[in-house]
Amino acid sequence: MRLAFPLVVSALLFSLGVFGVLVRRNAVLVLMSVELMLNAANLNLVAFDAWWSDALHSGQVLTLFVITIAAAEVGLGLAIVLLVFRNRGTSDLDDLGLLDESAEQEALPDDWLDMDGAGRVAPGREAAS
Amino acid sequence: MILAPLIVLVPFAAALAGLAVGRNRLAAGRVAVIGTGLAMALAVAAAVVVWVGGPSVDEWGTIPTGWIPISVATRADGLGVTIAIMVTVVAFAVQVYSTAYMHDEPRYGSFAALISLFTAAMLLVVLADDLVVLLIGWEVMGMCSALLIGHHWERPEARSAAVKAFVVTRLGDVGMLAGIIVLADLTGSFRISALESSAVTSVTLTVGLVLVLCGVVGKSAQVPLHVWLPDAMAGPTPVSALIHAATMVAAGVFLVARLNAVYALSPVALAVLAVVASVTMVFTALAALAQDDYKRVLAWSTSSQLAYMLGALAVGGYSAGLFHLLSHAAFKALLFLGAGAIAHAVGTTMLSGMGGLRRRMPLTYTVSTLGFAALVGLPPLAGFFSKDSVLSAAEDAAVHGGPTPGWAAWLVLLAGLVTVLLTAAYAARAWLLAFRGPPHWGTAETGVARSHPALVPHDPPPAMRTPLVILAVPTVLLGVLAFVPSVVSGMLDPGDATAAEAGGISIHLGTAALSLVLVGVGAFAAFAEWAQLGRRDPAAALGSFRPLLADGLGVDRLYDSLVVRPLVGLSRLVVAGDRDVVHAYVRGAGRAARALGALPHAAQVGRVQRYVTAVLAFVVVLALAGAGAALW
Prior knowledge:
The complex is a heterodimer. By secondary structure, chain A is mostly helical. Chain A has two domains: about 5-95, Helix Hairpins, CATH 1.10.287.3510; about 105-130, no CATH class. Helix content of chain A is about 60%, strand content about 0%. Chain A has helices at about 5-25, 25-50, 60-90. The radius of gyration of chain A is 25 Å and the shape is elongated. The relative contact order of chain A is 0.10. By secondary structure, chain B is an all-alpha fold. In chain B, about 75% of the residues lie in helices and about 0% in strands. Chain B is built from 26 helices and two strands. In chain B, strand 1 (about 55-65) and strand 2 form a beta hairpin. In chain B, helix 1 runs antiparallel to helix 2 and helix 14 packs antiparallel against helix 15 (about 320-345). Chain B is globular, with a radius of gyration of 31 Å. At the A-B interface, helix 1 of A face helix 25 and helix 26 of B.
């Protein structure tokens, strides 16, 4: 069999995964898209293993590793998504923007250099500009 | 002689022990009274040893400095032990008095301990034979006086008076420290005895002695550094008695007496001293005329009387000046403790809140009258003899010549006679307003109802009464020393060759008669004005000068505009420089870091898919670049 067939399929799978990760808004579907990308890589590994006729079949061995780790990762990821859903009532990625600091940047007061730990300005420095 | 360091260490130990038991009022009082009493007994014992067996100078150790070593040396001579007795007697009277006077005071423990420390420091000054050791006692005394004046630190005027006393005396001490270094450089030793034996007349010596005079002027409250003394009245009255009679201000006079043999070598330094003393005498007596506060009258009077002593020392009247120091210690302590008794009874020290206390407080009246009579110099009280021995010494120096230039001696004599007149006037005024005339106590301004039977003024309790009686004895009897001048000069013998020249005391009939006439004129003027005004304040006769005199001729305001305000302005400038220049760099570093941080900050949008997009775009760019590089 020609090497190009599995590689093209793998490329299609990977693109599908990237597309899913970038545009899907549901966290579960994003996870599934990640799985697609992983499996595209697996397909490549198996294809090249066969093409090289590797005596140790390291490609296939690595694939087994990836499958195992992907299973664990999905378990973990789904658990996180489940907890997020339970806590926030949504798993929509567009609504999970807690790390956003660009919009409401915490404005430091002008005399922050003169403050102690509790936010009090040291005496005698009140007039600092 | 082991007694000399013991005299210093006993009150010092009492101060430490007093601080340790400070919370227990009874124990603190006992420690203070017993410690001071023990020091008094030791001082008397040392005096007997010195008077019988001659002076002794001992060195207990040296402190290497890399330059001239400091000797921990004591000098128990006639001058030292006599002044030590004076110090301990007054301190003992003050400690006993305080147990009653400060009875309701929450900080009595630290107060009594500080007075013990004060006494120890003064005794160190008196008994030291090393200028640096003396300076240590001198400075400890300055610290104690500031702390004691600021005893009522809740009150702003007490706080500022304490700071003022500290800063003003320190100003003089800077000069004094420089003077000590100049003198030590000249003789190669800090020892006073070495200085006395090796000093010769020279310009350097004069410079050193004039610099030392700066410290004397500050400590003894002479013009122009007299400003702290009247304000020091914010302290408790026993402290005023101690500062004004035995310690602090007496230290300046003592130092000049201690260095008398050296000062005799420098007519210029003596002339400076004479001018300062003459100006102070008249100036402060004038200010005392117009004071509204009983204690402030006494405070200004202290400056004036100290000027007598320094004037006497300036014209070579060594024994006369110290004789006046002793009698002044007795009668001024008596007057201050009497003032405390009055304040205790009527709740104010303002003259306007007193009057008519003669019948209510017969004992206080009697002893204060004795004190005032001694102050103006009425025979046969101690003040008459001591003041007239000062005037006679000035006359001697003026007519027959002395260690100081003739014009300076004339100046001291003239100022002394004018001051006699002024002293009689202000003393008579204060006496009339406090004890005679219609009563003013118990009016609304003092807050004590006159009708209230428990608050009718009365003589103080025994613990305050006894010191008054004890101090009245030398006030009356110390004058007998004038009839035995050889005893006085023997008693005050500093134990060096120059003592013989210093001479004893003598009283000339001419100056004595003249000063008695002046006393009569001054007192009569005050009395006549008082009677004419319907037994009201005779100071009204001063007219428009009164506010100026009450203000101390505006010296405080002058210093305020010349020194204090420029200094405050300068410190504002320094603060502004720190805040707006130095701090601006620190601030700038912070601002720059924040601005740099804002750049990557903008990318943190909180949308995970944007991050992934960015990563992908970056990978694509890398891949294209890699491919491009491989093909090219």
